[in-house]
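Sample entry (96 residues):
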Amino acid sequence: PDFTLPSHTGEPVRLSSFAGSLVAVNFIYTRCPLPDVCPRLTAHFARLQRRFAGQPVRFLTLTLDPRYDTPAVLADYAKKWRADPAVWRFLSGTQD
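Predicted structure, serialized as tokens:
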């Protein structure tokens, strides 16, 4: 189903806006309770972002901790991983 969530850039992201693109999605915590899991998932997306540069591939990383992982926290996390906001967005939402 289509959804709209706020991104780390402060702009809402609607899933249907990626029609015609391949969309890869993962779920993380910026304060991951398993330090080998979330950083590894994010590192894989960072590599894929470089590998598929210029192609119609988009990456969405959704937080599992929206109370802590606000758009501002996600913006810092995205910067750390050199996420290009044109292709890779970090999304938050509400606890619901």
